[in-house]
Amino acid sequence: DIEGAARLAGMSVRSLQRLLGEKGSSYRDLLDLTRHRRATALLTETDTSIIEIAMMLGYNEPANFTRAFQRWSGYPPSDLRRFRAQAVA
């Protein structure tokens, strides 16, 4: 959460928000980017189930993860797995 991120950075939440805003970003943007990169790596480099990946990334419902992944990439996570399987074969 943003409080933990601010604490790790050694600053207040408001200071972190201000710094990110100056850079044209937000905590939500960084969280989405991090989740997308991690999800892509887990989907392509492991056989971890989509449900497990969703939970690992902090989603309470796999459907929410699927919707987020589709928003990030334009396709559902199951398609990335299918592309991976075809590339290996």
Chart the SSEs and their pairings.
Layout: H1 2-9, H2 13-22, H3 27-45, H4 50-56, H5 62-73, H6 77-88
* Strand composition percent: under 5%
> Sheet bearing the most strands, described?
none
| Element pattern in H and E | HHHHHH
Radius of gyration: 15 Å
Number of helical stretches of at least 4 residues? 6
Structural class category: mainly alpha
Stretches where pLDDT falls below 50 for ≥5 residues? none
Mean pLDDT: 92
Shape: elongated
Q: Distance between the terminal alpha carbons, to the nearest Å?
A: 40 Å
Can you give the helix content as a percent range? over 70%
Please provide the count of β strands. 0
How would you sum up this structure, described in words?
Helix content is 76%, strand content 0%. It has 89 residues and is an all-alpha fold. Helix 3 (27-45) packs across helix 5, helix 3 packs parallel to helix 6 and helix 4 (50-56) packs across helix 5.
In short:
The chain is mainly α and 89 residues long. The protein has helices spanning 2-9, 13-22, 27-45, 50-56, 62-73, 77-88.
How would you describe this structure in keywords?
89 residues, mainly alpha, 76% helix
